[in-house]
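Example record

The entry below shows one chain as it appears in the dataset: sequence first, then structure tokens.
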Amino acid sequence: MEITGGKWTVGKYPGVVVTSQRTKYYTEDIERGDWEKQEVEYYGGYILAESIFNPDDAKLMALSPALLQALNEIVIIAKSSNPYLNKDFLILCIANKVMEKLCPNPNLLPEFSESTINRIKTLINKS
């Protein structure tokens, strides 16, 4: 999978996600000239998505590259055969960083019931 590069952020409007890098949309078609410049100024970057109803969804989309990177780091750690590596601790640290980005206020995170936690543990043990 190849995603668009650059820094993804919410644009000038809460329902828009943009990137700092020129996308294929702007390079595969005709040269867009002033229109491209106006669009980048209007949206606050090169548009990736618009008309996103929930601003929190836009924030989550903007974090997608960082989430993919975090998952990649977790996979690398999990596959490591280094006996001196505290895998659980490192994975927890990465997950904690991601959650801080997703939800800066931990009091807003959902509470999981004991049965949900047990179902998650069962799924983990089966994999």
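Notes for this example: The chain has two domains: 8-61, 63-126. The two ends are 23 Å apart (CA to CA).
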